[in-house]
Records
---
Amino acid sequence: MRILTWNVNGFRSVVRNGFFDWLSKESPDVLCLQETKCNPSQLDESHLAPFGYQTYWHSAKKLGYSGVAVFCKTNKTCTPKTVYEGIGISEIDDEGRVLVAEFEDFTLINAYFPNSQREHARLGFKLKFCKDMLKYCEKFKKAGRNIILCGDYNIAHKEIDLRNPKSNENNPGFLPQERAWMDEFLSNGYCDTFRNFIQEGGHYTWWSYRPGVRERNIGWRIDYHCVNERFLPAIEKSRILNSIYGSDHCPVELVLK
């Protein structure tokens, strides 16, 4: 099974930039999207059930804001048994940040973590989200379920995960408090799958829209597939698809054995 995650920075925008042509050629078994910025009622029927996919959406109450979606191939292996919108905490769920899909062998959590914003205006909310997300993952893990937590974490964990760490030490996404939560999360028995395969730097998933930034690969790695350690032997590959354009992020792939 191939599971891709991609912050599209506006679903309708990425559709205009060839999303469905890309989806047809790439043909992932499961695709998790973040920052869809739309409600299904605003989309064409063809967008909700494209060639061989069933789609699930969790939109923010505020129109044009946040939102996540999961596209699953309509076959026995890839059709989830159950899909949940949110994690049961209204201040998080009202922003449409989490979709949970239960498959036979694992629970897939598609999450769009908040941005701490300029002057750290939402750092408190971000850290609460992180704390609640760890608690939510632990609930499944303690019940014996395997977990894939994928999406845009809005956190570059280590200095190796962004091009210019020194100049970004006080910037959202690389704050000490955010990075400390990532340390705590991984120390609780979870694994950053990409780093399990690739240890060197220079691999990023987000670049500013400023001219020339992406071409010079001045980026951040803030999109992840993390799994519980027990599930790690089931992971065949994790890689960044940095040749795919259409958003300021690129897709990230996870392949299960």
Note: The two ends are 7 Å apart (CA to CA).
---
Amino acid sequence: MIKKFFSVIAFLICSVLAAQDPARTDTGEIEKVMNMQEQAWNEGNAEKFMQGYWNSDSLTFVGKSGVTYGWKQTLANYKKNYPDKETMGKLVFTIIKKEKLGNENYLVIGKWHITRSKDEVGGHFSLVWKKISGQWVIISDHTS
């Protein structure tokens, strides 16, 4: 009986500590942003998709064409390369790894896959996230 009592107490303590773990909250918030981005992309809404990025001239995006600086230019590139909902297709992210980098940064590595009526494309990404003004945003994106 005492053993069962201590098992229940240990479980409750672990549950409370896990619920208060900022890393779990942070990664949950990051995943929520990525889910919003998937949904926005699948609606054909590039502007809403970009809400997951840092709205700054210091945002960096590295892709097959090289390095792009700035939120506005990154949005312009998305609109140029994916001009309509059909071209955007259906996006799915798969997270492979999440790693905390200091107090306010995370590295998220994963795969992206787009299914369109005519074809499928995909690749990998590494995203550096930073908490700015209480919001998790991507400050650097390397997608291939």
Note: The beta strands are 60-63, 66-69, 90-100, 105-115, 120-132, 135-143.
---
Amino acid sequence: MWHGGGGHVLRFRAMAARLDVDQPFYGLRSPEADGAVARLTVEDLAAKYIRDIPGSATKGPYLLAGASFGGLIAYEMATQLITAGEKLAC
């Protein structure tokens, strides 16, 4: 599996620059972008990324986004967060 843009987050730089200063923005890189070869399911990747969010011990609401394959992962992250009782921003 590979995220669009080679698994890197720089493609989201312009979007991040347009957010309010009080809006946290975290770009989560694909494990493959770091040279790691892993056979992870979409569910596994979503769970990993939820754990990787800095300060993820805090409560939402979470606002998630992803492009291409990353959109599928963001959808699965949303599903897992809702199942865990977290709130999502719409």
Note: Helices lie at 13-17, 42-52, 69-83.
